[in-house]
Amino acid sequence: MVWMGKAEIGTCDQMLADWLKWNSKNCPGRGVYRKHNWIKVFSLGCWTLWTSRCKLVFEGKTDTPRELGYRVQHLLMEQIVGDQLKHQIFQFAGNQEISWTPPPQGAIRIDVDGSVWNDQHAACGGLTRNSDGDWVVGFQKNIGTCSVTEAELVAIRTGLEVGKLYNHPMVVLYSDSMDALNLIARECMAHMEEK
After folding, report:
1. pLDDT at residue 69, rounded to an integer
2. CATH for 108-194, among 3.40.50.2300, 3.10.420.10, 3.30.70.1150, 3.30.420.10?
3. H or E element at residue 162
4. Could you tell me which residues come within 8 angstroms of residue 142 by beta carbon, excluding any fewer than 6 positions away?
5. pTM assigned to the model
6. What φ, ψ does residue 45 adopt, rounded to 5°?
7. Which end of the chain is more exposed for a tag (fewer CB within 10 A), N or C?
8. What's the distance, Cα to Cα, between the start and end of the chain in Å?
């Protein structure tokens, strides 16, 4: 009714108020949302819809319903502990000191990064170290024009290709791009749901 312009403003306000009240009292969550507090799911869903609407209005970009659902799921994996944001899977805090840690014995660690300069020139690179911290091999690659997330994904793929090229049986790969890691995790989850 609201979208088609057929409802009066007062009627829209009342319909919205009733809908909000119903969602705050009931717990209609199901599927991947059933294990979460419905108020949190509902609030994050509204926030995600609002930011998606702003993206459409100001940037002309749209999100699919599936992308919106994944964004809500990602936000649900984060929680505030004390006054620090912690991810429920990756368990790190915002003010934690970050230092290099070696991979397990017999493995190599590949650290990768992708970047875009001036919205035009994209590149990626990485370096490989063994469990003693010794440098094994490094790489860099000019990508051309793409988004930062695409550059990060190319960095991850290239890092894994380097590990395979040098016949390393066990690879631990690090990337600082949560967007790229979420895309990979999302695809893995979708693939597992198909089976």
Report:
1. 79
2. 3.30.420.10
3. helix 148-165
4. 121, 122, 123
5. 0.51
6. -65, -45
7. C
8. 39
